[in-house]
Amino acid sequence: xSRRSSPPTLAxxxxxxxxxxxxxxxxxxxxxERVAQIAGVSAFTYFxxxxxxxxxxxxxxxxxxxxLALSQALxxxxxxILPADEPDVTAGR
Length: 93
Prior knowledge:
54% helix, two-stranded antiparallel sheet, 5% strand
């Protein structure tokens, strides 16, 4: 992925993270329900994660433990599901 001229927004980053989760899951032939079960999250929560949301209109913002559980359930390193371009969450502070 090429570097953007400006950092992505948190919402864009969350959507890309969701896409990365979906790609890793599909590459391993797992269902959303199975990944959720292995990672210890509800299926509904995992469905929302793949959409890049926590709640409608709210970007995905999982806890570190959840991210680690998802990467382990998918059999990938955490860095493989995190998008390359990070948002500037300190902007405007």
